[in-house]
């Protein structure tokens, strides 16, 4: 495993004294899709902005592909593509020339065939001669990605890539990101949409109040923290859970028509057979049962609450 991005002891105190990052350590592997998940104001954009050279760190170091982002700025920056949340400039420029121009800013020679490939992959080829100001919001988002890819970066940052985009663009983005990974590009996305992390990421980092509280393989995370729930639908509603069933810590639904039993899916004997037998013994008749597994969202909410 090679490390593509190495963040060490990174802190940011904004003017005015607000601490947005607190001694963050983070290593991102080459070719992985890493989702940085956190609530509003957690410090995600600050972290990305420091790595991309838009904000100065207060302490700590960042290396991209082995290049320090301060002492070896050009080499580090040329490896990075950033898809920001909003497009700000170039209203009168055409799509094709804006993307070609961005490539030039990184000192790369013109490569119209590559720009064409990028525009086609983002369904922007038909719009290549249109002025940016005439594009729809969704197309502007596509353009932001095209610009970020213009210089063939090896690390792509997507800051809240699908906030407010339609289903089609979201699907296109996910396909594009998967394609980039196949080409060995490292992708780091920030999101507060759990669904996005669940769908896309190989690994997940959770950040809150400027601290990374967890970094884990997605599969391991869901495996380790995933709880299962068994819901027992009753023949007759009950007012209270019988004392004999106290050990199961059952929760009664508001209308008393169902009982929920939460258990660890990893335990060999979650006690379901015992529970059903004990329900029978306590005279609680049931007509159906079903199980559900906690989603990444449940896991995230419980982590951030802690
Ligand atoms: N220039 C600044 N000066 C002072 N405080 C700032 C500045 N930029 C950001 N902050 C504060 O730093 C904290 C982290 O902001 P940041 O934008 O990094 O969070 P985020 O995780 O990206 O949030 P969101 O999901 O809302 O984009 C916030 O409390 C924010 O108000």
Automatic annotation (TrEMBL):
<dbReference type="Pfam" id="PF00005">
    <property type="entry name" value="ABC_tran"/>
</dbReference>
<dbReference type="InterPro" id="IPR017871">
    <property type="entry name" value="ABC_transporter-like_CS"/>
</dbReference>
<dbReference type="GO" id="GO:0016887">
    <property type="term" value="F:ATP hydrolysis activity"/>
</dbReference>
<dbReference type="GO" id="GO:0005524">
    <property type="term" value="F:ATP binding"/>
</dbReference>
<dbReference type="InterPro" id="IPR050763">
    <property type="entry name" value="ABC_transporter_ATP-binding"/>
</dbReference>
<keyword id="KW-0547">Nucleotide-binding</keyword>
<feature type="domain" description="ABC transporter">
    <location>
        <begin position="5"/>
        <end position="234"/>
    </location>
</feature>
<dbReference type="InterPro" id="IPR003593">
    <property type="entry name" value="AAA+_ATPase"/>
</dbReference>
<protein>
    <submittedName>
        <fullName>ABC transporter ATP-binding protein</fullName>
    </submittedName>
</protein>
<dbReference type="InterPro" id="IPR027417">
    <property type="entry name" value="P-loop_NTPase"/>
</dbReference>
<keyword id="KW-1003">Cell membrane</keyword>
<dbReference type="InterPro" id="IPR003439">
    <property type="entry name" value="ABC_transporter-like_ATP-bd"/>
</dbReference>
<keyword id="KW-0472">Membrane</keyword>
<keyword id="KW-0067">ATP-binding</keyword>
<keyword id="KW-0813">Transport</keyword>
């Amino acid at each position: 495993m090679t490390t593509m991005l190495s963040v060490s002891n990174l802190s940011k105190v904004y003017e005015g004294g607000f601490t947005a990052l607190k001694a963050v350590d983070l290593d991102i592997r080459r070719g992985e899709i890493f989702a940085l998940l956190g609530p509003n104001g957690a410090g995600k954009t600050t972290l990305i902005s420091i790595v991309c050279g838009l904000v100065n760190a207060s302490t700590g170091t960042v290396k991209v592909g082995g290049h320090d982002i301060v002492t070896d700025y050009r080499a580090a920056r040329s490896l990075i593509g950033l898809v920001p949340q909003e497009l700000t400039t170039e209203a009168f420029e055409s799509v094709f020339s804006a993307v070609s121009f961005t490539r030039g800013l990184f000192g790369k020679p013109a490569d119209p065939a590559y720009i064409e490939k990028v525009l086609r992959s983002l369904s922007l080829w038909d719009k290549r001669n249109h002025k940016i100001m005439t594009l729809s919001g969704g197309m502007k988002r596509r353009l932001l990605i095209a610009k970020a890819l213009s210089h063939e970066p090896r690390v792509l940052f997507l800051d809240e890539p699908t906030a407010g985009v339609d289903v089609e663009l979201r699907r296109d983005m996910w396909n594009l990101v998967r394609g980039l990974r196949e080409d060995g590009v490292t992708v780091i996305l920030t999101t507060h949409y759990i669904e996005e992390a669940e769908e896309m990421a190989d690994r997940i980092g959770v950040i809150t109040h400027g601290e990374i509280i967890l970094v884990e393989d997605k599969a391991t995370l869901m495996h380790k923290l995933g709880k299962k729930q068994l819901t027992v639908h009753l023949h007759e509603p009950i007012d209270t859970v019988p004392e004999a069933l106290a050990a199961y810590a059952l929760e009664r639904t508001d209308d008393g028509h169902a009982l929920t039993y939460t258990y660890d899916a990893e335990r060999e004997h979650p006690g379901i057979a015992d529970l059903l037998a004990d329900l029978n013994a306590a005279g609680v008749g049931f007509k159906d049962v079903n199980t559900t597994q906690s989603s990444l969202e449940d896991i995230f909410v419980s982590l951030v609450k802690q």
